[in-house]
Design brief:
CATH topology: TIM Barrel
Structural class: alpha/beta
Bound molecules: coproporphyrinogen III
Largest sheet: 7 strands, parallel
CATH architecture: Alpha-Beta Barrel
Distance between the termini: 29 Å
Helix content: 40-55%
Shape: globular
Number of domains: 1
Strand order of the largest sheet: 1-4-5-6-7-8-9
Order of helices and strands: HHHHEHEEHHEHHHEHHEHEHEHEH
Length: 345
């Protein structure tokens, strides 16, 4: 385990299945999106350009920590940023998401994807240096995209509802698929290692779209590639593994090598723990849409989730997916206060 001030934080303790003084809380996609101060600093700067400027990365990473008093920062970046950093022609289009100029379809395409080197992401290490200096005892969560979710963007050319090209390639050309996911695992491993060496106290692997797979296809075509990333990281920091719509994949996602399994809002945390057993902490799982309801509804849901989370050997409070852009930031702050108050009492 890394030895810095943040390594004894509530977040790391919950992930390690120890007993923190209160339930730690942070929000997926807390950096950016719903904050007016984010929109101000981003004005006129393209998303991926902002991710490559250490001063801006540090500022945006810190904004939700200063405003909400969350128990962790998450690096402001994107799962496709490493692909841009190694020279792939892609962009994040506002209101759409990642768009890839030349989608991957063949082994030749895969072999043309460069390997990741730490030098290609020096700006990340620099940004984290600035962040750690301001964060003090609050941990920074580093993250990366899991090979399946990254592959789906590269093969479809952009966001996709049905992932049909991705699944066709996975099932019809398994050798091309394995070569692509191996390369993406190498890229995400170096991206995560760089963040850990620079001072991240925990990491999260986002396999946002894994829930589109059956358990059998996940285990046959995906699990080993994500497991390679977790194995390469080792036990230096806690590892969180998250996907959406993954109720039937939770045990497999834990078995890939996570300490904490991220749970979306569909599965109650006590049911998730019954499936996962005593070896895994859980993270989640307030429905992001509930933040648009009246406060008594939100309060009831937060209390329910904290109660269900007590069944788990460790609980990190979060949403079941990312903060929605139109969320009222003051509601997020109130949820943080409520989680701290209820769980400490
Ligand atoms: O948690 C945080 O706020 C940290 C930063 C972060 C971003 N993207 C910033 C971002 C993180 C952790 C991500 C991860 C990410 N990116 C995921 C996994 C999480 C998830 O939501 O499932 C995925 C699938 C992506 C790909 C991506 N990037 C999409 C689909 C989009 C478009 C939709 C959207 O959220 O607006 C992006 C763009 C993006 N990534 C923005 C931000 C702040 C919006 C760009 C902008 O403000 O112009």
């Amino acid at each position: 385990m890394t030895d810095n001030a943040a390594s004894s934080s509530p977040l790391v303790a919950a992930a390690r299945r120890e007993s923190p003084p209160h339930t730690p809380v942070w929000f997926m996609r807390q950096a950016g999106r719903s904050l007016p101060e984010y929109r101000t600093v981003r004005e006129g700067i393209a998303m991926l350009d902002s991710c490559m400027r250490p001063d801006l990365v540090a500022e945006i990473t810190m904004q939700p920590v200063r405003r909400h008093g969350v128990d962790a920062a998450i690096l402001f970046s994107d799962i496709v940023l490493p692909l841009k950093a190694i020279g792939m022609d892609l962009d994040i289009v506002a209101g759409v998401g990642p768009v890839i100029a030349n989608p991957i379809a063949s082994l030749t395409d895969v072999e043309a994807i460069p390997e990741m080197t730490p030098d290609a992401i020096g700006f990340i290490a620099e940004a984290i240096g600035l962040i750690i200096a301001e964060l003090g005892e609050t941990p920074l969560i580093g993250f990366a995209g899991a090979p399946f979710t990254l592959a789906s963007y590269l093969i479809e050319g952009g966001p996709s509802r049905n992932h049909e090209k991705t699944k066709a390639l996975m099932l019809s050309q398994p050798e091309v698929w394995d070569a692509l996911l191996s390369r993406l695992a190498q890229i995400s491993t170096v991206f995560l290692r760089t963040q850990i060496e620079a001072g991240a106290s925990a990491v999260q692997l986002f396999d946002s779209w894994a829930g589109s797979l059956t358990k059998a296809t996940y285990e046959r075509h995906v699990l080993a590639h994500s497991a390679r990333i977790f194995n390469a990281i080792g036990d230096v920091v806690p590892k969180i593994h998250f996907g959406v719509g993954t109720s039937l994949l939770l045990e497999s996602m834990g078995a890939a090598g996570a300490d904490v399994v991220g749970i979306d809002w569909r599965t109650p945390l006590d049911e998730a723990t019954a499936l996962l057993g005593p070896e895994y902490a859980v993270q989640g799982n307030l429905d992001p849409a509930v933040l648009f309801a009246d406060w008594p509804v939100i309060e009831r849901e937060v209390r329910r989730i904290l109660a269900e989370g007590r069944a788990a050997p460790g609980h990190i409070f979060n949403l079941g997916h990312g903060v929605l852009p139109a969320t009222d930031p003051d509601v997020i702050t109130r949820v943080v206060e409520l989680v701290h108050e209820v769980s400490a009492g």
